[in-house]
Design brief:
Elements lengths: L1 H6 L11 E3 L28 H11 L1 H11 L5 E6 L6 H11 L30 E3 L8 E5 L15 E5 H8 L4 E2 L3 E5 L7 E7 L2 E2 L5 E2 L6 E3 L16 E7 L3 H4 L6 E8 L14 E3 L2 H10 L6 E4 L6 H9 L5 E6 L2 H13 L5 E5 L9 H5 L23 E6 L10 E2 L2 E2 L3 H13 L9 E6 L7 E7 L18 H21 E11 L8 H10 L3 E3 L14 E3 L5 E3 L9 E4 L10 E8 L5
Parallel strand pairs: 1-25, 5-8, 7-11, 15-16, 15-22, 16-17, 22-23
Antiparallel strand pairs: 2-4, 2-14, 3-4, 5-7, 6-13, 8-12, 9-10, 12-13, 18-21, 19-20, 23-28, 24-28, 25-26, 27-28
Helix pairs in contact: 2-3, 7-8, 12-13
GO molecular function: RNA binding; RNA methyltransferase activity
InterPro entries: MeTrfase_RsmB-F_NOP2_cat, MeTrfase_RsmB-F_NOP2_dom, PUA, PUA-like_sf, PUA_sf, RCMT, RsmB/NOL1/NOP2-like_CS, SAM-dependent_MTases_sf
Keywords: Methyltransferase, RNA-binding, S-adenosyl-L-methionine, Transferase
Length: about 600
């Protein structure tokens, strides 16, 4: 743990405690793709909102933020696997995975040909092996699987046949996925099944109205000339590899699912681990695993995971508790609650109870508390399917799978379905269920929980997600949108504080690099709730937080940490030697609320 922490000391830039004054200068770093010496390469550049870009320059400094911005456009060059220690062990998992990933170029990154120069070597059991157990105390059940890249891809002499994919599809491919049909935007003419195709990315562009989008209709045919080739110049330097077309051009836009391109040569070669060893392993970012450890859950405790979907941290907490105790996992989305249930069942965990609940309504209303027959919901059966509760504070919601809705008109005893409804259901089949539609399944709804009813609360808050990688687009976020995220997070934190008993613990985490959602939230919490205090975290491998404040042109001052507090939080920098996502963790101890 100490070695892992020392690894990052020289890699993080601390801000001094003096106030930083925000300048509205419209400095905006861009790269002209048309000037790129090699069209068929991968050299992306994030384009930020000008004012937001200046804010980050002030927070991190020009050189540091340039490195962060560059790191965000590429994936981590290793996969982090959390082993379900209730079912298996790290050594056993490594032996099972070894033959399954033998066809992937897993090797220590080319920059680290000398093992001793690998900045992660202090955290690894064997820095020269494609598989390695984590040596950080308490994390020996974490396995690193090395990938490789960036690779230079040989696309041949003649212009290759091409497939253009959406930005989200490309980000998944960079993490090891295949190109699935819904992600294909455009394709060269005369592409047939079995053809080798180059895969490029259509990244959102800003229109004349200031909005962002892709001015391209799905199914566009790419012509040979520059003038007739959609997004020709915009695709310079945005080629992510090549593969084999699994369908003809017509087939790619006729079917609604399946693999469109089987990727053979990738800029970044990582394994996806999709459907491998289900129930034994879970692919999870290292900082997320650290967040579960920071909570320090104990057997027999009652714990709340407020924004739990998809359940990675929930199941990590349950395993740390040896599946003994009670974990309440909530989310506002019906389908996401089902995802948590599914994952808990796969991993064989029985201490997790799931509920559909808006995090902003986590605390019971006073009249609900007065009528509770079972305020702690202890009469619930201890399984992930969640039986009906006797408490009036809970009600069951059963939603049937999507079906075609018929009209009143009938013909020969059959329900008439209009063409409009048929088209609507085809779109649902292609795009998946929408926000207000359920894939079906049983979910309990909760009206909230009484104050002081949990030993520990994890608030992994919804955020701007500006630390997730790879990221090829960031243009839509603005200063205003980031402030709105922060307001929402404060309201959720207010709920968390009420729910933790005196002597309990709150862990707050985000996957963003934005100080306004990280250090500013800590400042808000400590200033508003005098009985809260920051607590040390174990293990500690992240860097220090940002000290100081930022003054905006409208006079608003965003306060961050004060001297001495920076070492009590963990900030994971995507440009640091750990090569993780951007992430932030703060741990609070709740004192006597009477004071």
């Amino acid at each position: 743990m100490k070695k892992g922490r020392e690894l990052l000391v020289g890699s993080y830039r601390r801000l001094h405690q003096n106030t930083i004054h925000f300048s509205p200068t419209h400095f905006h770093q861009t790269m002209s793709h048309s000037d790129s010496p090699n069209r068929y390469s991968f050299s992306p550049s994030l384009h930020w909102n000008p004012q937001l870009h200046q804010y980050f320059l002030n927070a991190y400094g020009a050189d540091h933020f340039s490195r962060i911005s560059a790191a965000l456009t590429r994936p981590s060059r290793y996969s982090c696997i959390r082993v379900n220690t209730l079912r298996s062990a790290a050594d056993a998992v490594i032996e099972k995975l070894r033959p399954l990933v033998s066809n992937v170029s897993v090797a220590v990154q080319p920059e680290f040909e000398d093992v001793e120069s690998n900045p992660l070597k202090e955290c690894l059991e064997d820095a020269s092996a494609p598989f390695s157990k984590c040596r950080i105390p308490g994390l020996d059940y974490v396995v690193f699987v090395w990938g490789s890249g960036p690779h230079r891809i040989d696309y041949g002499v003649a212009p290759p046949k091409e497939v253009i994919v959406s930005r989200k599809c490309a980000e998944a491919v960079l993490r090891g996925a295949q190109v699935y049909v819904p992600g294909v935007m455009a394709c060269s003419a005369h592409v047939e099944k079995g053809d080798t195709v180059a895969v490029s990315v259509a990244v959102e562009q800003q229109g004349a109205d200031g909005g962002w989008g892709i001015p391209m209709t799905r199914g566009t045919v790419l012509q040979g000339s520059e003038t007739g080739n959609a997004y020709y110049f915009e695709r310079n330097g945005l080629y992510i590899g090549q593969g084999t077309a699994m369908l003809s051009r017509a087939g790619m836009f006729r079917v609604s699912e399946g693999v469109g391109v089987d990727m053979k040569d990738r800029v970044y070669d990582l394994h996806s681990f999709h459907n491998l060893l289900e129930g034994e392993i879970f692919l999870q970012n290292l900082p997320s695993i650290i967040a579960a450890h920071a909570l320090d859950p104990q057997r027999g405790e009652r714990i709340l995971d407020m924004c739990a979907a998809p359940g990675g941290k929930t199941t990590a907490i349950a395993i740390l508790m040896k599946d003994e105790g009670e974990i309440i996992a909530t989310d506002r989305s019906h389908n996401k609650v089902l995802d948590i249930q599914k994952l808990a069942a796969e991993m064989g965990l029985s201490c997790i109870k799931t509920f559909k609940l808006d995090a902003l309504k986590s605390v019971c209303r006073r009249d609900d508390i007065d009528t509770l027959t079972d305020p702690c919901c202890n009469n619930a059966k201890n399984d992930v399917t969640n039986q009906v509760f006797d408490s009036p504070n809970l009600e069951v919601e059963i939603v049937s799978p999507i079906v075609t809705e018929g009209k009143d008109e009938k013909t020969n005893g059959r329900v008439y379905v209009s063409r409009a409804d048929a088209r609507k259901n085809m779109r649902r089949a292609r795009n998946g269920p929408g926000r207000n539609q359920s894939v079906g399944g049983r979910v309990d709804r909760s009206k909230g929980f009484p104050p002081d009813s949990f030993d520990r609360v994890l608030l992994d808050a919804p955020c701007s997600a500006l630390g997730l990688r790879p990221r090829l687009f960031a243009g839509e976020e603005t200063i205003e949108s980031l402030r709105n995220h922060a307001k929402y997070q404060r309201r959720m934190f207010d709920q968390a504080v009420q729910l933790v008993r005196p002597g309990g613990v709150i862990v707050y985490s985000t996957c963003t690099i934005n100080p306004g959602e990280n250090e500013a939230l800590v400042r808000y919490a400590l200033d508003k709730y005098k009985y809260l205090s920051l607590a040390p975290q174990h293990p500690r491998i992240g860097g220090p937080g940002l000290v100081g404040s930022c003054e905006f042109p409208d006079g608003y001052v965003e306060e961050w940490l004060r001297p001495g507090e920076e070492e009590l939080v963990q900030r994971f920098d995507p440009s640091s030697p750990l090569d993780t996502i951007g992430f932030f963790i703060a741990k609070f101890v709740v004192g006597s609320k009477d004071t």
